[in-house]
Amino acid sequence: MEHESRFAPAVMDALTREQRSVRMSLIRSRDTKPELLVRHLVRGMGYRYRLCVRSLPGAPDIVLFDKRVTIFVNGCFWHRHSCRGGRTPKTRRAYWCEKLKANERRDSRNAARLKRDGWNVLVIWECQTKDLERLAARIRKFFEE
Ligand SMILES: [Zn+2]
User: Fold this and answer.
1) pLDDT for 26-83, tens place per residue?
2) Counting CB atoms within 10 angstroms of each CB, which of 74, 79, 137, 144 has the fewest?
3) Measured on CA atoms in the order 60, 107, 96, 10, is the torsion positive or negative?
4) Tens digits of per-residue pLDDT, 18-27?
C-alpha cells in the first residue's frame, strides 16, 4: 500500500497535513512499480545505468552516463500527465492545483537544464508502462537516435 502512494491521490486527502508532507517527501525516493519495469527493460537491452542521480537536475530516476541519457519515470498524477490519471482532484482544488503546477514547473525547469548541459531527456509516464512491448520499442528508438 505505502509504496503506491506516489500514484494514489485518493488516500492523500484523508491524511493530516503532517502525514502528507512526510509522504510527499518520499515521492522521489521510493522504488515504484513503473520504475522497476523501466529498469528491467533497460537492463534487458544490455545497458548499464545508475539510479536517482542527485547531482543532476531533478535527480533523474535512471541515468546512462555513456549514452548521456536521463530517464524520468513519472507518476501521471504528481507530474500532471495529460491522461485521465493526471486530472486534478475536484476536492481541495486550490491546494492540488498549486501543488501539482509547482511540480510541473519544476519538471520542465529540470529538463531544460539537463538539455542545456547536453543530456538527452526521456520522460516515461506511469500509464505508458502498461504496454511493455510498445514501451520497449520507444526506449530502443530513443537510444538509437
Ligand atoms: Zn498518464
Assistant:
1) 555 456 699 999 999 999 999 999 999 999 999 999 999 999 999 999 999 999 999 9
2) 144
3) negative
4) 566 655 555 5
C-alpha 85 to ligand 1 mean position (Å): 5
Q: Give the distance (Å) from ligand 1 centre to CA of residue 105.
A: 17
Contact 40, 51 (CB under 8 A): no
**β-strands 62-64, 50-51 pairing:** antiparallel
User: Following DSSP, what letter does each residue of 74-105 receive, concatenated?
Assistant: E-TTTTT-SSGGGPPPSTTHHHHHHHHHHHHH
Q: Which amino acid is at 13?
A: D
Distance 51 CA to ligand 1 centre (A): 22
Question: Is the distance from CB of 10 to CB of 90 less than 8 angstroms?
Answer: no
* pTM as predicted: 0.77
Give distance in angstroms: CA of 31 to centre of ligand 1.
18
Centroid of ligand 1 to alpha carbon of 108 (angstroms): 16
